[in-house]
């Protein structure tokens, strides 16, 4: 099962969703691999407190190599290449972190022939990662549409889209669906939104409640069963290198957030298996 966290907008909760879905699915007994294609900030690694360990191993092959000309040589000469790309988190799922080299990848991809430009990551998963027998692969994407994003979407075919309710989420979701229609037509693909996740919801306010109701009406089929509340503890946990699942004394909102992610993760598996 593959899924990618994506919305063409920064800071909506894509990385948080990837991390929390990863741990939730691990808790359900799945072997989970998370892959960070979201760029040099390496946010997913930070979310699991792995940045120092990763930076200390700079000589290894990294995820950016998958997209460049050195990849064939690496594969021939490094038999356990996926093991070398992969790090273990303390919370269960494995992680292939981002790398600063990803910043150049977009331009490099743009100069490749159209036939293989968008398929390099899909090929990597199929040829090298599938044999590792993970049950679930979660891909964290940039908050913008570039050639890396297209690679991630094409490989996953299922999108989880966190949104912040407010003035703009309607436009953002409309744009997402229109973009996917366009990619599908151009790539002859079936990339679809599996779950829209209302994030940072303030359901204790009338406005929050109303916005949530409207979203449920407009996206009845794809909206997640449970919204994610606004929770300072999510941010605090992230800053200390963990998800809310690893908090020993979670606040009420953090407890609700992790319960919501757990329910939504189970629902995502059902939807994708359908
Ligand atoms: N429900 C929430 N309540 C409070 N803070 C949250 C919530 N969800 C996410 N955050 C915080 O908001 C910030 C942005 O979240 P996140 O990094 O997941 O967004 P993103 O979509 O991955 O951003 P980018 O586009 O930059 O990659 C983070 O500091 C995160 O801890
Ligand atoms: Mg992110």
UniProtKB/TrEMBL annotation:
Location of region: Disordered: 232-253
Gene3D superfamilies membership: P-loop containing nucleotide triphosphate hydrolases (3.40.50.300)
Domain AAA: 8-192
Positions with biased composition (Polar residues): 232-243
Pfam families with a match to the protein in the record: AAA_31 (PF13614)
Top-level taxon of origin: Archaea
Protein name: Chromosome partitioning protein ParA
Native organism taxonomy: Archaea, Methanobacteriati, Methanobacteriota, Stenosarchaea group, Halobacteria
